[in-house]
């Protein structure tokens, strides 16, 4: 059972959004091709879904400015611009993403007291989203991940998948992802590969599917 996990392909993380990833919208046609031609049995999309007063927002810390370090629950926290607030267009999945092929949307970041980069659990690793159990119950044996941003939500989702789904093959689709900082992207890929996550391209995924038919 093969599953594609699309990480946070939302308006907020694409050009024009409140926390835009450079070239973030370029992942959409690649993701659409993967859904159409990648031979997946399941497609899941994660969605940042923050309350308006989320503690990771710089606006919730007096005198703070975005992209500086603060604290949240006593732990170091990057403070972000307000983004992906529940019910706003900024939080919506990209309209040019083929939503008809998505089987489940996993929302995350609902607890205002902790940030949630990963689609599987909060950053403090206390609360889980239930995604790992959902995938296990459906017999997923291979999980391919991609989306936004490589050096944050994609990386943490991949590493948590590796830990929480030990019997599942985890792969990162590099050309279907974009990151914030080039050096951070390189470090993220190194962390993923060191954890046993395989780096692939969309052409490889599609080619494998064609070879199997």
Describe this structure in words.
The chain has a single domain, classed as Rossmann fold (3-Layer(aba) Sandwich). It contains five helices and eight strands; from the N terminus they run βαββββαβαβαβα. The chain has helices at residues 27-37, 131-137, 150-164, 182-194, 202-212; strands spanning 2-7, 42-48, 68-72, 75-79, 104-108, 142-147, 169-173, 198-200. A six-stranded parallel sheet has the order 5-2-1-6-7-8, sandwiched between helices. It has a two-stranded antiparallel ribbon with strand order 3-4. Strand 7 (169-173), helix 4 and strand 8 form a beta-alpha-beta unit. The model has no long low-confidence stretch (mean pLDDT 97).
Short description:
With 213 residues, this protein is an alpha/beta fold. It has helices at residues 27-37, 131-137, 150-164, 182-194, 202-212; strands spanning 2-7, 42-48, 68-72, 75-79, 104-108, 142-147, 169-173, 198-200.
């Amino acid at each position: 059972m093969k599953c594609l996990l699309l990480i946070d392909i939302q308006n907020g993380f694409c050009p024009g959004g409140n926390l835009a990833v450079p070239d973030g919208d370029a992942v959409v046609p690649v993701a659409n091709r993967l859904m159409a031609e990648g031979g997946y049995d399941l497609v899941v999309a994660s969605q940042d879904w923050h309350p308006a007063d989320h503690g990771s927002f710089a606006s919730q810390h007096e005198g703070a400015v975005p992209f500086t370090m603060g604290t949240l629950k006593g732990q170091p926290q990057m403070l972000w611009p307000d983004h992906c607030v529940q019910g706003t267009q900024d939080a919506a999945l990209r309209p040019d993403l083929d939503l008809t092929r998505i089987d489940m949307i996993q929302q995350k970041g609902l607890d205002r007291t902790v940030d949630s980069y990963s689609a599987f659990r909060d950053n403090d690793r206390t609360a889980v989203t239930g995604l790992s159990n959902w995938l296990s119950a459906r017999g997923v044996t291979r999980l391919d991940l991609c989306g936004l941003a490589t050096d944050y939500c994609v990386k943490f989702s991949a590493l948590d998948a590796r830990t929480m789904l030990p019997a599942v093959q985890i792969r990162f689709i590099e050309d279907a992802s974009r990151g914030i900082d080039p050096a951070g992207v390189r470090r993220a890929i190194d962390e993923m590969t060191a954890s046993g996550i395989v780096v692939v391209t969309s052409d490889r995924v599609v080619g494998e599917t064609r070879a199997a038919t």
